[in-house]
Amino acid sequence: MELQSAIFNEWRHLFKLDPDREISDERLDAICMSGTDAIIVGGSSGVTFDNTVDLMSRIRRYEVPCALEVSSEEAAVPGFDHYFIPLVLNTDKAEWLAGRQIQALRKFGAFIPWENTSAEGYLILNGDAEAAKLTSATSSLDAEGVTAHIYMADRLMRLPVIYMEYSGKFGDMELVKRAKSMVTGARVFYGGGIDNADKARAAANAAHTVIVGNIIYDDLEAALSTVEAVRHVQQQ
């Protein structure tokens, strides 16, 4: 566990870039030089080997660590610092928890850099998000439901990362805080609706790691302001 989690255990702020969305060299330069702890590459749809390789090669011109969220076999590109394998926890569709992953492991298991690969348990909590529709996630979890999923992910499955994803809207920080207070080994990632410094601070107070995505493409200055905001929140 220590070897797996070492690279991201101190990450507080991440920018998430989607290979299927265009980003200019100038905007990418600002993101990579912003002081963020790392860049994570991933998306819910339209992610291919070619667009993932292209984005990675552009990020690799900078010293910032770069991780890949492997959402499909086609996007399994070598050369990243770390790999996250998503497991959707709050779905009754087994293919999103173990089906697709097993299929990929049958083909590529012997070639995976296991020392740089971690499972990432997703709780998708915005029913309107593309990822929720794609995976048939049960997104309307109450506090009791979230608690049960955290027990499963942290205590039973011993996952190193639990990603609370509200993609497209700002989530319930009390639920995120509850998750963070419960975990014994997992790191709680939060993503969704962070479009200014105030929301970034609130998320940083609730989660271990804050992930900023969509606002990069809509308002670069607002995105950049989240780095400093998170940095000034003391880890609890």
Describe this structure as you would to a colleague.
This protein is of the alpha/beta class and 236 residues long. It has one domain: TIM Barrel. The protein has ten helices and eight strands. The chain has helices spanning 2-5, 25-32, 49-59, 99-108, 130-135, 143-156, 173-182, 197-206, 215-218, 220-231, and strands at residues 13-17, 38-41, 66-69, 82-88, 117-124, 161-165, 187-191, 209-212. Helix 7 (173-182) packs parallel to helix 8. The radius of gyration is 16 Å and the shape is globular. Residues 1-5 have low confidence and may be disordered.
Structurally, the number of domains stands at: 1
CATH topology: TIM Barrel
Strand order of the largest sheet: 1-2-3-4-5-6-7-8
CATH architecture: Alpha-Beta Barrel
Can you give the helix content as a percent range? 25-40%
The CATH homologous superfamily is termed FMN-linked oxidoreductases
Please report the first level of CATH classification, the CATH class. Answer: Alpha Beta
What characterizes the major β-sheet?
8 strands, parallel, barrel
How large, in whole angstroms, is the Cα Rg? 16 Å
Poorly predicted regions: 1-5
